[in-house]
Amino acid sequence: MIVFGSRGSDLALTQTRWVAERLQQRVGVDFRIEVIETKGDRNLSQPLPEIGGKGLFTAELETALRDGSIDVAVHSLKDLPVADPEGITVAAIPARAAVHDVLVCHPDAVDETAESIPLRRGASVGTSSLRRAGALRLLRPDLEFRDVRGNVPTRVDKVRRRDYGAVVLAAAGLDRLGIEPGELRFVSLPLEACPPAPGQGALGVQCRRDDTRMHEMLGELDDEHAAVEAVTERDLLLRLGGGCSMPLGAAVRREPDGKLDLRAALFCGDDRVGGVFVRAAHHDRSELVERAARELEPLVRTPLSGRDVLLVRPEGVRDELADYLAVAGARVKTVSLTRVEAMAVDPADLAGVPESGAVFAFSSARAVAACMADRRLAKAVPGARVVYAVGARTADALARFGVSASVPDEPAGGERLAAYVLEAGGEDAVVFPCARGRHGAFESALRAAGRRVHPVRLYATVPIEGATLAPDLGGAVVVLASPSSARAFHDAAARSEIDISSLRVVAFGPTTAGGIRELGLDVDATAASTPASLLTAIAETAS
User: Which option is the CATH number for 342-459: 3.30.930.10, 3.40.630.190, 3.50.50.60, 3.40.50.10090?
Assistant: First the structure.
């Protein structure tokens, strides 16, 4: 007789029974299920992040394992602490269910015309997950996010009763319980916008570390692919020093060639808006985790917490720099003194672009949108021999047009993107869709190495006529990310009669620093071409 321990919720019991029945089929041993209440089950009045501590839904089951009251405990793997508790181990990860999240919506809250998520403006969304709230807030900051507690059927019922316009739940839980939408609307959330909790959709089957009999039996249920993917996601969480409440999403998929593809994102852990997305691929799990961690680790301890940053960026652009600084803890105010205008493409720029077999490099999602708006380029890019993208968001922008891009493993600016192109080898000219008045780092680095570059100018950043600044900039550090933003800031300050000589100014990149100095302004710090270096420069300037 094998004694399984389980929480008393419908989902926990369903998952435990599923494992127990399959184990019985494999090894022919009877079982019974012991229901054990956990701290997370008892405290339904507080939001989960406020209760704090590790093992809110697992500690009591682990105690029962240690004292021999039960032989096996079955958990949603995402609920387990990333480090094995003393004397206990995960002996099996069975075949994995769906990993994505689902928005369960009441019909009265649905707006099919709404962008990104089909909810009306101001609709209330229930979630106890900082990750889910962070991801959805990035897409729809107008929504109202409220804590919700209770098991899966209870949360769905709260939507039916109109206590919430919608709640966010794991697809795996809905599927395992066989919950149908009925009059409600189920909306699957895309992994590229809302990556799941590490290990979501997988089950973790625990036993005592020294129980060799149970180890052998549970090994019959282990699924190699599910284990590799889920454990890699949890290794990233462990590497970043996080627990279940860290607003980290991670999804790993094994490609046909055996390479592991990772999508990860770290979001703001409060009501600010921001998310930093990472994409990496590698055959080696440890190297894959290390590459993703190097990008996210500078943000984990919110090094800019409490700092005010004024970021000057073009109008109407969803800004990755603003997101990065927000996740780092800064209070970011973005000021738009310029706007992006499409240009009539010079026929001479297009003359050297082959219809197929070209090599393209993109330094922003903005460049992708401008490129795919041109009829000839929109045909040439899908037929390219290889396409390079500066980062995850630029690659995702290309993916929306069905184009797969190769992305550097490190945070990339122009110089790093050029180095990545050179590392890949080849002699073809690189077609570079870009702006007029662009940074020259990418082209200069390639040409210095003897590689030809073919820029195609598609848009321009122009000043907004008559733009002004608020009279009190307070103690904010001003971040200028291009020479054009520096000129616009200088001119707007003059119109606003603001003395900017005493402001603390950080330049993002040496080209921008040169442009600022040409205007007669001091530069307090110059960041290299990576977001992490910008964090360091701001922290040093603001201290």
Answer: 3.40.50.10090
The answer to whether residues 415 and 445 touch, using CB atoms and an 8 Å cutoff, is yes
CB-CB contact of 407 with 293 (8 Å)? no
Among residues 538, 131, 528, the alpha carbon closest in space to that of 303 is found at: 538
Rounded distance between C-alpha atoms, residue 104 and residue 109, angstroms? 10
Residue 277's closest CA among 324, 237, 232, 239? Answer: 324
Backbone angles phi, psi at 439, to 5 degrees: -65, 145
The residue ranges of the chain whose pLDDT is under 50 are none
Q: Which residues of 194-206 are buried (b: 16+ CB within 10 A; e: fewer)?
A: bbbbbbbbbbbbb
The pLDDT of residue 412 is: 60
Q: What is the CA radius of gyration of the chain?
A: 26
Side-chain half-sphere CA neighbours of 250 within 13 A: 30
Q: For the chain, give every domain's residue range.
A: 101-188, 301-337+464-542, 342-459
Position 37 scores a pLDDT of 84
Cα 266 from Cα 195, distance rounded (Å):
9
| CA atoms lying within 13 Å on the CB side of residue 497 | 0
With tokens 């052998």, the residue in question is 216
User: Looking at the annotation, which residues are catalytic?
Assistant: 79
34, two tokens = 């012991």
The two domains 301-337+464-542 and 342-459 share their CATH topology (first three levels equal): yes
- Residue for token pair 């339904």: 44
CB-based contact 205:91 (threshold 8 Å): yes
